[in-house]
Design a protein that fits this description.
CATH topology: Nucleoside Triphosphate Pyrophosphohydrolase
CATH architecture: Alpha-Beta Complex
CATH class: Alpha Beta
Oligomer: single chain
Largest sheet: 7 strands, mixed
Number of domains: 1
Structural class: alpha+beta
Mean pLDDT: 95
Number of strands: 7
Order of helices and strands: EEEEHEEEHH
Helix content: 25-40%
Strand content: 35-45%
Bound molecules: adenosine-5'-triphosphate
Low-confidence stretches: none
Length: about 140
């Protein structure tokens, strides 16, 4: 079984969170693979920038998720994946979705709608952790 490790971000601007829409219509958080020798935080910030055009900074660590998938739908090529997530902040909603990376749009979605839109349950859980932390910050 192959292991893959990525890092990504829940990027906050005021009361909205950045989601990316893939060609197939799925809404996901920005993330990408950790390169050799690269720090997780550096990866997360780099991937947010590369996929969405958004410059952000890290405020906190949110947790990790695990899932498995089959490479090219091949029964024998199971990939076990870990993704580390960071809470990030940005001061501009200007985005530029990277079509070459498979994304048709990058949008800041209001916190009240973000959980309905996000495709994966494990990403929803990470968004919930982020929403809790944001609420505590503004109290
Ligand atoms: P990365 O963005 O880390 O470079 P990638 O785009 O190469 O990754 P993934 O986004 O991990 O690959 O997608 C590989 C497979 O896993 C796809 O079939 C996708 O539908 C599925 N997948 C992606 N994210 C999740 C998730 N959070 N939970 C469960 N399955 C997922």
């Amino acid at each position: 079984m192959r292991e893959e490790v990525s890092a990504g971000g829940v990027v906050v601007f005021k009361n909205a969170i950045l989601l990316l829409r893939k060609y197939n219509g799925d809404w996901v958080l920005p993330k990408g693979k950790i390169e050799e020798g690269e720090d997780k935080k550096t990866t997360a910030l780099r991937e947010v920038k590369e996929e969405s055009g958004c410059r952000a900074s890290i405020n906190d660590y949110l947790g990790e998720i695990h899932y498995t998938y089959r490479e090219n739908w091949d029964e024998n090529k199971v990939v076990h994946k870990t993704v580390y997530w960071y809470l990030m902040e940005t001061n501009s909603i200007k985005t530029n979705a990277q079509r070459e990376e498979g994304f048709v749009s990058a949008e800041f979605i209001h916190v009240d709608r973000v959980l309905e839109l996000a495709k994966y349950d494990d990403e929803k859980e990470i968004i919930k952790v982020a929403l809790k932390k944001i609420k505590n910050q503004t109290r």
